[in-house]
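Appendix B. Chain record.
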Amino acid sequence: MLSNKNNKLVFHKLIAEIGGSFVKHTIKKYNGDYRSQHFDTRSHINSMIYLNIRGCKSLREAESEISSNKKLKNLINVPSVSQFSRKNSARDYRIFEDIFYHLVDKAKRRRGAVRLMKDIPPIKIIDSSVILVALKLAPHFQMDNSRAGIKISTLFNGEFPEKINIVKGKVNDRKCIDGLFEHNSCIYVFDRGYYDYKWYDELSKKEIKFVTRATKHSIVMEERMISSDLSKDIYDTEVIMGTSYSKNLTTKSYREIMTFNEEGEAVTFITNIFDLPASDIIKIYKHRWEIELFFKWIKQNLKIKKLIGYNENAIKIQVFSALISYMLIYLCCDTTVLKYSMLTLTRIIRSNLLEDFDEYTVVYFRTG
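Structure tokens predicted for this chain:
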């Protein structure tokens, strides 16, 4: 057990994951402290983590809290609001990006491959979420006549994001997936917003396995019944999709699995996996909901819903700071043994962020 006289805060415990030489090397790599004056890069990183986890609504609120708390003053060179804003706009966002991926690599080494289903290859969920911004504040991210926004395209393993792409909100989902589909040792799950028959063939040629939903307007040219389970209302068919006249006909065969939801509506899945039972394919797709919970958690609990800077660099710093905060909570806290959800852990950490890391708080962490 830790002594009550321990002078380390819960905040210390979190940011210890990005201590040491890595951050120093990263700051030097991108010349982060060039003309930094009072507000150095490490203070900037700690400020953004604090702002996210604490739930500050503005830079002014974060600055006020940091400047009025002697515990934080020891960790952060307090910036003025104008300094904070300028550094969000100008300091290289790649510092924050590299720290995020450093934490992702840590999680992979420490926990191993995330397995959402026993005896099934790792499941990787692909989806995107749009963060809306007032058009007059960020006209360079214009989506339509009244809105602007950014799109965060994410590869999620069911517990934490492994890779993200940040693009303008109006970019089509299929055009922001660079680097997300790279391995044939896992199963990719994505919704029907990504449908493209020729792309399905490209994935299949690379032996990349996937499960997705069929669109309402899917056209099947040829089909052969594989099996059916009338007791469970599951129908399993081998199909070739598309039309010959539109030159969008698949060159490979796919598996179309149809079942019914609680309202009696038909739900159809498309996959290139033929060696798993239809019931497993349906269960695999249901895990797509995990990424929806992640996006909801990010928007509700971290400082992404309201942007605190409007050029591309500031927005990327804000997004990566939120993801860094998520990874710090994930790495430090026990989500498996104690069965706490990330939402519950976030609330616990937030309420104890500036408390001593002692016998009371250690129970929520993986290590003492």
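Further analysis of this model is presented in Appendix C.
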